[in-house]
Specification:
Length: 393
């Protein structure tokens, strides 16, 4: 067949995009892709190699991004409002390390499992201390993009550590948050108390925490003839590069941020030291309130696992949960403050939706429940401010 022959000649000269092949050969991109796959499989098209034997698409991440399948994946990631590099870099490492063309991961889940197991083995041998969270996430995203159906509990490509499992209950009650402030001050000093307070109130990413406190604006609110204050922070969250307005409603944390000087670091320790210290303080605190135990080792997917292995992330999780309670379970509103999107948020808290049915109409301020709950729910953020400032009807 002429088309097959031309395609072989073109491809063996240099790799082309599907667009280019389709235009030059006068066939659809789908057909060009199908033919190229056949020719690659039978070995008629020999992927060009660089002088040292490396395939051209493994020579650099930029080359890798030129592969059609990767280009399409990037489009999808952008469409999902995700930063492509976060997924593409780990995917590049996985494919390069195992000498696998990303297109080959299409074939079957079994094949993808073998490739990934091979990668994990050689990666762990090279970097025994490094975690594979980014790679776990990237490969899962890519396989889903390829159209494979993978359950959340798939043993190799399980869903994000934070999704599914029993993490819906991983959170602090309002009382535990107060204890957290005391614990942090006692064990870590005032700076770590501030860190914990700001973190739990705003669910900023850790990278934001170990910098200068973002600009804070004082805001006022009228409830029942009283003027109440709260704080607003404007933060650029690095993962998406989007600016979010974060609110601080808890009066103790409001006081904290107004007591801080302009351009003051939240903690003066260096980032690496601060992050470790904060993580250890949090773990110690989780032990103190019985969220963690020295006797039980939790497996991935169990509540304790997150407390032990992602102590900072746990706070972000707990905070988003608290904001759901503060806004009458309005996931769109909470997402607009810096969660990925409301769909992800609802997936994280699938069980929150049943709770929201039961709590509908309950507001600690204007319609308090008969039984006292350790977790306050409010009809609106303004009633949360009122209650937290001690107003009672
Ligand atoms: Zn209310």
């Amino acid at each position: 067949m002429r088309i097959m022959r031309n395609l072989t000649e073109m491809e063996n000269l240099r790799p082309r995009t599907l667009q280019e092949l389709s235009e030059r050969l006068g066939v659809s991109k789908f057909t060009a892709c199908k033919y190229r796959k056949i020719l690659r499989d039978v070995g008629t098209i020999i992927p060009p190699k660089l002088e040292d034997g490396t395939k051209w698409y493994f020579a650099s991440p930029e080359n890798f991004r030129q592969l059609d399948i990767v280009k399409d994946f990037i489009i999808q990631l952008k469409f999902d409002k995700l930063l492509p590099t976060t997924s593409i870099s780990p995917l590049y490492q996985i494919c390069k390390e195992t000498d696998t063309h990303p297109e080959d991961l299409k074939d079957s889940i079994r094949k993808a499992e073998i490739v990934y197991a091979k990668f994990v083995e050689s990666w762990k041998a090279k970097y025994p201390d490094k975690l594979l969270i980014k790679h776990d996430k990237a490969i899962r995203k890519f396989l889903l993009f390829l159209g494979h159906s993978i359950t959340n509990s798939h043993k190799t490509f399980y869903a994000d550590n934070s999704v599914g499992g029993d993490y819906a209950n991983t959170r602090l009650s309002d009382q535990e948050f107060q204890s957290g402030l005391e614990f942090m001050e006692k064990e870590g000093g005032i700076e770590y108390k501030n860190l914990f307070g700001i973190h739990h109130e705003t669910f900023v990413r850790p990278i934001t925490l170990f910098k200068v406190l973002p600009k804070v604006e004082m805001q006022f609110l009228e409830v029942a003839g009283k003027t109440l204050e709260y704080a607003q922070l404007s933060v650029v969250e690095s993962k998406q590069g989007v600016r979010y307005d974060k609110l601080i409603l808890h009066p103790k944390v409001v006081d904290m941020v107004f007591d801080m000087k302009a351009n003051q670091m939240i903690v003066s320790d260096k980032k690496e030291i601060a992050e470790k210290k904060y993580a250890n303080l949090l773990r110690a605190f989780y032990h103190e309130i019985g969220k963690l135990s020295t006797e039980i080792t939790s497996k991935r997917g169990e509540e304790g696992w997150l407390y032990q292995n992602r102590p900072l992330y746990t706070i972000r999780h707990s905070s988003a949960h608290m904001w759901m309670r503060r806004t009458n379970y309005n996931a769109d509103l909470v997402a607009s403050m810096g969660w990925e999107d409301s769909k992800t948020l609802l997936k994280f808290y699938s069980r929150v939706s049943t709770k929201s049915i039961m709590s509908a109409g309950v507001c600690q301020y204007c319609r308090p429940p008969i039984r006292v709950s350790p977790e306050f729910s409010f009809c609106s953020a303004s009633h949360a401010v009122a209650y937290l400032n001690g107003l009672r009807i």
